[in-house]
Design a protein that fits this description.
14 strands, seven-stranded antiparallel beta sheet, alpha+beta, Penicillin V Acylase, Chain A
């Protein structure tokens, strides 16, 4: 993932909301989100180049989300794939905190990463960069891109604010509007030169990467994923996939029943569980 907004315990009936864009080379082979043939309790997209996933959920409602940490000149091509980190959590029974603690000793083997891990016990952030490598996230709307948690890049602050405003309008009794949340992540407006961060990739690339949704013939937003976990244990998982022109080329609709521990495939109408 390259941009993700997470709302933890903001709406009483919806304790976890995840909204994320994955930006990647259009040539990189990927499988659409579906249950894995070698791990039927995992629902996720799959990176066919290095393995693992950027975002996934299990039949028990465990969620793992990964973003790379942008640091030009510090990439080790021999480091293990960061997709193993999400894969490992989704296959394990460890709590988010226990799993994050286990990464402290081996995290330096990987290139820079950010992980958001969630289960019934709550939501947690961990990273192998920065000072606070493990942070529990109890309540609020958080944002993560390719720097530390809540780093105020224009694309992050814009989407974080828009999601926060929508949830405030919904109110405590309401439900989030999936269509509006997807629209927020379709924002192709780039930041002004004055707003751009300096991460060492040059002004032209900073400009390209500064919009929440990236349209480019070589590298851009490949998919947007929405996860809505309801208080009763039912979860909506929806993925929209895009081509280099930003046009939808596929969608996946899944309901996760964490009590019966199963995935139900369907259409957008079947989300009225």
């Amino acid at each position: 993932m390259c941009l993700a907004i997470l709302a933890s315990n903001v709406l009483p009936d919806w304790p976890l909301i995840v909204l994320a864009n994955r930006d990647e080379l259009h040539s990189r082979p990927t499988l659409a989100a579906s249950p894995w043939s070698d791990a039927e309790t995992i629902l996720a997209g799959r990176d066919l180049s290095a393995g693992g996933t950027w975002l996934g959920i299990t039949t028990q409602g465990r969620v793992a989300l990964l973003t790379n940490y942008r640091e030009p000149g510090h990439h080790d091509p021999l480091a293990p794939s960061r997709g193993q980190l999400t894969d490992g959590f989704l296959r394990s029974d460890d709590s988010p905190h226990s799993y994050a603690q286990s990464l402290l000793d081996r995290g330096n083997r990987y290139n820079g990463f950010n992980l958001m891990l969630a289960d019934a016990s709550g939501l947690l952030y961990c990273s192998n960069r920065g000072h606070e490598k493990i942070q529990p996230l109890d309540k609020g709307v958080m944002g993560i891109s390719n720097a530390s948690l809540n780093t105020p890049w224009p694309k992050l602050t814009r989407t974080q604010r828009a999601v926060s405003e929508h949830l405030a309008q919904v109110g405590e009794r309401g439900a989030p509007n999936a269509g509006l949340l997807f629209d927020i992540m379709q924002d192709t407006r780039t930041a002004s030169i004055e707003e751009l961060p300096d991460t060492g990739v040059g002004v032209d690339r900073e400009k390209l990467l500064s919009s929440p949704f990236i349209k480019n013939e070589r590298y851009g937003t490949r998919c947007t994923t929405l996860i809505l976990r309801r208080m009763d244990g039912m979860v909506r998982f929806q993925e929209k996939r895009f081509d280099a022109q930003g046009l939808i080329v596929g969608e996946s609709f899944w309901t996760v029943d964490t009590h019966k521990k199963k995935f139900l495939s369907g259409t957008v109408e079947t989300f009225d569980f």
